[in-house]
Every structure is written in structure tokens, then in C-alpha cells.
Design a protein that fits this description.
This protein has helices at residues 3-17, 21-25, 32-39, 56-64, 77-90, 132-141, 162-174, 181-189, 191-194, 212-231, and strands at 46-50, 69-74, 96-100, 117-123, 143-154, 197-200, 205-211. It is of the alpha/beta class. It starts with a helix and ends in a 9-residue tail after the last helix. Bound molecules: S-adenosylmethionine. S-adenosylmethionine binds next to helix 1, helix 4 and strand 2.
Length: 240
Amino acid sequence: MSDSDHAALMDGVYRYQRYIYDLTRKYYLFGRDRLIAQMKPAPASLIVEIGCGTARNLIRMAKRYPGVALYGLDASAAMLETARARMAAAGFADRIRLAHGYAENLSPATFGLESGFDHAVFSYSLSMIPDWKQALEAASRSLKPGGRIHIVDFADLAAWPGPLRAALRRWLSLFHVEPHRELLEVLAAASEKTQQYQLLGGRYAVLWRGPADAILGAMAIVARQSQRADKSPSGAVAAP
Ligand SMILES: C[S@@+](CC[C@H](N)C(=O)[O-])C[C@H]1O[C@@H](n2cnc3c(N)ncnc32)[C@H](O)[C@@H]1O
């Protein structure tokens, strides 16, 4: 799918949803406020949210961390229109800068910046971004040395009864949301040193924070493991 097709798809998903988005997602996008509370950025930090949607999280960050500079990127022009209205209503139109673009192509130049961000946030966006690995690589390249990535997203619902799990997956797929099993493996592998991996609500959601290097290293490890499993005669990998 081309970038412009994906943007049109996202606009299609959110054309009407955006008006009720914050109200309806309040109860099922768990962990977003916990992610924000755990960030604790230094004053004057630069924070980018990738797939910022209605700017719900950016507005909360602006309230909680008055000294930081905030940036939001989204592929849906419709969502950004709602974000602008929400920011203006909350009095933060000047504190937050938005850009229309693709996570996979993020760079500081997207916002006219010469140096990188201190923090990159993915809140329930990796499960909608077609090339989530490329998005994590682009975010890592866009950070200053020592910069940190913060992720909250759907996990594998492994502790949920099968029929409920299947029903939720079917419902999410209506919105083109695809929880990535491999992302969970990457985050678990990336947590061996940082210990910043939390599973919430019967493995409904995963919360992770840590240095960008840890994610890139873990992606390489998981890719090698799956190549080995593919090559091994008995090592069939279960379909996601
Ligand atoms: C489920 S919403 C989450 C919004 C917000 N982060 C939150 O927590 O409320 C996912 C957002 O990711 C955006 N998105 C999907 N694919 C994207 C891409 N490739 N690049 C940038 N944004 C993308 C969608 O347009 C949507 O606004």
C-alpha cells in the first residue's frame, strides 16, 4: 500500500470516529496516562508523539510537564484537524506543533528541527502503522543520543477467554488495528537490561520505555531468531 493510500485509509477510519474518539477510547486504550506519568522528562525536553491522533496525550503532557516542547505527527489529516481544535480549546495551540506525515519517514526536519528529540512516544499507533519496524527505526534515528522511546499498545490478550479474545481481535480489525505478536517479542527482548516491560489487564496492553538502542538491538535479535526457526527443519513458527 502506498503512503497516500494509507493516509486515505486512516482518514476513512477516522472521518466520523474522530468526533467521538476520545470519549469512546477512554476505557479501552489502557495505559496511556500511566505512560505519561512514567515519562518524567527533563525540563525543556523535546517530545514527539507518532500517530498523535486527536492530541489527547499531547494535551495531557503539556499540562503535566509545563517546560517541554511537544510535537505530534499523524498520517490522517482529519485527525489533525480535530487535534488542532482540541489544542485551541485547551489553550495549547502554541505549545504543540503538528505535522501531517508518516511514521516510517519521521525525522527532526519534519518539524524544521536541526537536532533530535529527547523522547518519542507511540501510543496505540504501532498496531496501525503498516511498517512498524521502519517506524521504530525512524524514531530511533530522530532521537538525540541517549533519547528514549515510550510505547503502549495492544498485547496478545493471552489471559482472556478465547471467544472474548477472538471477538476483540475481529472488532479491532474493523478499524485496521493489528496487534503485532513480534512487537511483544521485541519489547520483551529489549527489557532484559532495562526491566521496563509491563503487561496490563490480562496481557491486554503492553507498556515499555527505554533507550532507542535497546529496541534496535532487540529487533535484530528477534529477526535472527525467526530466521533460524525458519531454517530449522522442525522449527515451524506459528502464524500470528
Ligand atoms: C489508535 S490511534 C491513537 C491516537 C493517539 N496516539 C492516542 O493514544 O489516543 C492511531 C493513530 O495513528 C495514526 N497512524 C496510523 N498509521 C500511521 C502512519 N503510518 N504514520 C503516522 N500516523 C499513523 C492514525 O491516523 C491514528 O490517528
